[in-house]
Amino acid sequence: MSDTRTSPTGHALQLVRGFAMGAADIVPGVSGGTVALVLGIYDRLIRNIRNGARCLKQLLTGDINGFTQTLRGIEWVWLVTLLAGILIAVAALSSVLETLLNDHPVVMAGLFFGLVVGTIWIAFNLLDRVDAVAVGIIAGVAIVLFFLLGLREDTEVAEGAAEVVTQPFWIFFLVGALAICAMILPGISGSFILVMLGMYTEVLGAVNDRDIVTLVVFVLGCVTGLALFSTLLNWLLDNYRNWVIAAMIGLMLGSMRVLWPWPKGTFTTRLEAPSDPVVLPIVLALAGAAVVIVVERVSNRVGDAGPSFPD
Q1: Which of 77, 155, 176, 262: disulfide with 222, CB 3.0–4.6 Å?
Q2: Is residue 268 helix, strand or coil?
Q3: What single-letter DSSP state applies at residue 157?
C-alpha cells in the first residue's frame, strides 16, 4: 500500500519531522531514532526501511514480481519528504549547533539532557507491562552502555588529528554497518560510534581525498547493516515489542552519560557535580522535557501511525 497522505500540510509536517531528526543526529549522544520515537513514527520508519531491504533481496535473487510489488508498497513520498527534512537540518544547523555547543556547552547539554528525559518518559509509557524482565532489560542495557561510553572520555576527535585512510576496506564495511544501525536506534548517534571506534577521521579522510572505492565500501556496509538490522528490528517489534521498548529505554538512559552537562557538556563523558552555570541548564532541561511531552501529545492527535504492510 502506498502513502495516501499527499496533502501540502502532510508534506510540511513530514519536513518538520525530518528536520527534527536531522538536528538530533548532529548532536553526540542523540539520534534521529530518538526523535522518531517521540513523534510516533518509529514503527512506520522501520517498516519502510524493512520493505526497502526486502526489495533489495528480491532484486538480487531475481524475484522481479515480488520486487515490483514490494516497491509499490514503500511510502516513497513519506520517506523522501522525511529525508529532505533531515538533509535540510544538517545543512542549515550544523554550523549553528556547533557554535552553540562550543560557546555554551553546559547550557546546551542541559537542554539536550531534558529532551532525552522527556523521551524516556514517553517510551516508558509505551511499555505494555513493567515486569521483572522489562526492568532487567532496562537496567542491563543502561549499565552496559554507560560503562562502554566511559571507555572514551572525549566525544570528538582531537583537534588537528590527521584525516587519512589507514584501515583496510573490510574495516570500513564493518564500521559502516555498525554506525548506520546506531542512527536508527534511540540513544546514541552514528557519528559518535565512529569517534569511539577511532574511525571518524578515517571516514573524513576518505571524503576529503575523494577515495571513491573506500567510500563505496563504507556505503555498502551501511546498506547491508541497515537492511539486516531493520529486518531484525521490525521482527523484534512485531514479536517482542515490550522487550524492544525496554532496551531502547536502557539505551537512552545509558547515553545520558554523554549529555550530563558538567563539566563540559557533550564534549566529554566525564562526570562531575554541578557547577556554575547551574540554574540555566536545569531550567532548559525542564523546558526541553516539557516540549518533548507536548510534541508527543500533539503528534498523537495527528494520528500518523501509517498503513500496515503485508508480510
Answers
A1: 176
A2: strand
A3: P
